[in-house]
Structure prediction request, 230 residues.
Amino acid sequence: MIRIFAGYDPNEAAGYHVFCHSVLTRASEPVSITPIASNTFAWWKRTNTEDHKGATEFSFARFLVPYLCDYSGHAIFMDGSDMLCMGDVAELWAMRSHRHAVQCVKHPDYEPTKIKMWDQQNRKYHRKNWSSVMIMNCDYHHSHILTPEKVASASGAYLHQFQWTTDDRIGELPPEWNVLLGEQEIPQTSKLLHFTLGLPPVHANVVDSLWRAELRKMNHVTDFLEQEVA
Prediction:
């Protein structure tokens, strides 16, 4: 079973469901998708109130994945709500490593567009967007550091820049598995499109039309009432 945890934010509810549809319809192996939704974590709150609260409701809760997996096996985390899967997630799952604590697309540091979704300031920081797609090795002892208490109190830099592990235990994934739309060139081999600046209709281009097409497929329901009963 491919274990995926996907970020859910009520501001992008449609985006979450489109993402799930895009994963399920292209997967060649059984997939389990669990939403990281704040209302299902009523028992857990951030205690580090001095740190940036995060752009979405799952900004910090994503690091609870090893805990939710009882620190066992592997699991994929994806932002989900602002993503579109164009490839077979089984290919990504096959890349999981036992010698790394976490694997991700290692985007070079870049100067981000100043404003992103919901008119939020788009902050620049080291290893930006690395944590938006992660294969987490929940067995690895570094992952055991990510207890609910630690995730609640640690700084954003500590969590998102992977200071809870060491550089040699951060594995690299192919760049096509986290393509930052609006921030980098779009390779033809893209497997996972990341609308990090905001979902359509924020933009109007060919890539955005792919998201709208996926939305139409997800919304399609065969009207059995119009079919002749045999």
In short: The two ends are 38 Å apart (CA to CA). The chain has a mean pLDDT of 88. The domain at 2-226 is CATH 3.90.550 (Spore Coat Polysaccharide Biosynthesis Protein SpsA; Chain A). The longest strand covers residues 2-7.
